[in-house]
Design goal:
mainly alpha, 3 strands, 2 domains, Rossmann fold, Four Helix Bundle (Hemerythrin (Met), subunit A)
């Protein structure tokens, strides 16, 4: 089935060097779609967390959660809940607008005004808590990397649980959702899903760090 805007999206992405044609055959369930995403990324020397995924059905949820940017097209409430972006109107070409915003913001799902309000718009306190977040998340992600190598689901679940609330405190909602997904999939012993989600956390964290440092440069303590 050819959705409205699909050709425009494909042409624009190919022109920008953002897509590669890979034949993967028919996919029927979430596990197969996630495996296809991981296999395709592996062929390209990428991690799933560096990919952009567009999905619409419940079977797309695993790959939407694993991707660096998971966009849902005219989704149900369930699918929308597990995506970073929900496209409710227009054709597939609406994803081009999402990509533009994704690049401009650098860290999708990040609203640093949450932390600013938490510290009473005090630039010194903002800097203190932002750097504390970066330090604590670096520790968490180091443990995540080790747990991924060892396929240690208990540690991955614990790190997801530890990071999700901390991320919300600075306004990193997308990162927090991924941490929640990591906690849930690890506890359910969904090893491949959990590892794929875990591998996508660091690219998101890097973007968050960049945004934090940019904000600190523009709001120096008085």
């Amino acid at each position: 089935m050819l959705y409205p805007g699909a050709e425009e999206l494909a042409d624009a992405c190919k022109t920008a060097g953002m897509t590669v044609d890979v034949a993967i055959g028919e996919l029927s369930d979430g596990a197969e779609k996630l495996q296809a995403l991981q296999a395709t990324c592996a062929k390209l020397g990428l991690q799933a967390g560096q990919a952009i995924v567009l999905g619409s059905s419940a079977s797309d949820i695993p790959m939407l959660q694993a991707a660096g940017l998971g966009a849902a097209y005219r989704p149900s409430a369930e699918v929308a809940e597990h995506s970073m972006v929900a496209i409710q109107t227009g054709g597939f070409d609406r994803l081009l607008q999402v990509l533009t915003l994704h690049r401009a913001e650098e860290a999708p799902g990040l609203d640093l005004s949450v932390l600013e309000m938490l510290v009473g718009h005090d630039a010194t306190k903002f800097r203190k808590f932002a750097l504390l977040f970066i330090s604590s998340m670096e520790t968490v992600l180091t443990e995540v990397d080790t747990a991924v190598a060892q396929k240690d689901m208990a540690t991955l679940g614990a790190m997801g649980h530890r990071a999700k609330s901390t991320a919300l405190n600075i306004g990193a909602t997308a990162f927090s959702r991924q941490c929640l997904a990591l906690e849930q999939t690890s506890r359910a012993q969904k090893v491949d899903e959990a590892i794929s989600i875990a591998q996508g956390l660091r690219p998101m964290f890097v973007a968050i760090c960049q945004a934090i440092h940019q904000r600190m440069e523009t709001t120096q303590p008085t």
